[in-house]
Amino acid sequence: MAATDSQMPFGGIANLGKIPELRKRILFTLGMLIVYRIGAHVPTPGIDPNALAAFFAQQQGTLLGMFNMFSGGALSRLTVFALGIMPYISASIILQLMTAVVPQLESLKKEGESGRRKINQYTRYGTIGLSLFQGFGIAYGLESMQAGGMPVVVDPGWGFRLMTVLTLTAGTAFIMWVGEQITARGIGNGISLIIFGGIVANLPVALANTLQLARTGDLQPLFVLFLLVMSIAVTAFIIFMERAQRRITVQYAKRQVSGRRMVGGEQTHLPLKINTSGVIPPIFASSIILFPVTIANFAPWDGLKTLASYLSPGQIPYMVFYTLAIIFFCFFYTAIVFNPDETADNLRKYGGFIPGIRPGKRTAEYLDKILTRLTVVGAFYVASVCLLPEILISNYNVPFYFGGTSMLIVVGVTMDTAAQIQSFLISRQYEGLMKKARIKGRR
């Protein structure tokens, strides 16, 4: 029931450290995130840090600034992790889109664990390819950049380009490995936690800058208070929407087993979340926009830079394209994670049915209709949360770092990680009860 969803077994958070395996997983996750943050401060050779910092000071509120946000500030320092995890996300998008249209990849997806490993391998290869391409584009573009009359690259040429490409590609490959290790040996989704860590790492500096603007009079104190209240309200709204779900009643028919013994007949619920896709749509939408625009910003051609300026945050083309991308990925990812036909077949196989709906095809059509309506609401909710701060920033020149996209990612990843911890605790509690039952049975 909803009343018990937020309750943690074993006495809550205070008892998390009492389970050795969970404690190891949490410490491993924290250790990997610390390694990631250390790497985000290791600079790439051949760069003038002062000129690069001056250049990125002019990129606040642009897509290049957003890319820097997702990398946790690594791009503005051009560290070994400057590309961040975005090439991996771009490769994942490409593979998932190809899975829907390429029969060979679709058959691999249906093979279960072995097929999933093969697709993950293709995703890694795609990540390396995209990293090489993006790394060369950044290296080539940096050679023509200056800030305050100072060149960003100390010694331009093919030596710098090759060194930068190899360094950035190796950094992205290492981040990809860290994310996979967190997913396998830690707690939570590793890729999402890496993005989460990059966003949260820059939050204290952004809040300090906002308070400094209020202290100098550039922002009115009442307006800063309004931003704080709005942030709390949006966070509460995100939590409410992420927990909201439509519960469909499922009835199981009674059946006879072992002579006269009857089983089944119970009633349960099939929960369908309003936002089934989670934080994937804004991450994928940002990646789709960031990939070509980043190359255009670093390219030495003014025409591409002018085109990229139209896709800067606050511009109408950016908002339209961003909204359409979010809506598309909400529907696309929901279709990947929930299959109405498969769910209807499983219900019929185990004797379950929705009251008033015939099993089989009718049940699949009913689930598809309900899921489509929920996804419409979920897509509108995600797009609204992501665009509201963009509108405030563009209309009121608010230098507020913690925007809707980052807020949705932070809250969503936090809730998903807490849910995994709760599931882990519940499973350990169940195992403990089973052990006690076996001991009593032996006695």
Average residue pLDDT: 78
Number of helical segments with 4 or more residues: 18
CATH class category = Mainly Alpha
The CATH topology name reads: Preprotein translocase SecY subunit
Structural class: mainly alpha
The major sheet is characterized as: 3 strands, antiparallel
Question: Can you tell me the CATH superfamily?
Answer: SecY subunit domain
Report how far the terminal alpha carbons are from each other. 35 Å
* SSE string, helices as H and strands as E: HHHHHHHHEEHHHHEEEEHHHHEHH
Please report the total strand number as a whole number: 7
Structure description:
It is a single chain. By secondary structure, this protein is mainly alpha-helical. The protein has one domain (2-442): SecY subunit domain (Preprotein translocase SecY subunit, Orthogonal Bundle), CATH 1.10.3370.10. The protein has 18 helices and seven strands. The protein has helices spanning 2-5, 20-39, 49-57, 63-70, 74-77, 86-99, 103-109, 113-142, 158-185, 190-201, 203-216, 221-243, 280-298, 302-309, 316-337, 340-349, 361-396, 404-442, and strands at residues 146-147, 150-151, 245-252, 255-257, 261-263, 267-273, 352-353. The strands form three sheets. Strands 6-3-7 form a three-stranded antiparallel sheet. A two-stranded antiparallel sheet has the order 1-2. A hairpin with a 3-residue loop joins β4 (255-257) and β5 (261-263). α6 packs across α8 (113-142), α7 packs across α8 and α9 (158-185) packs across α10. The two termini are 35 Å apart.
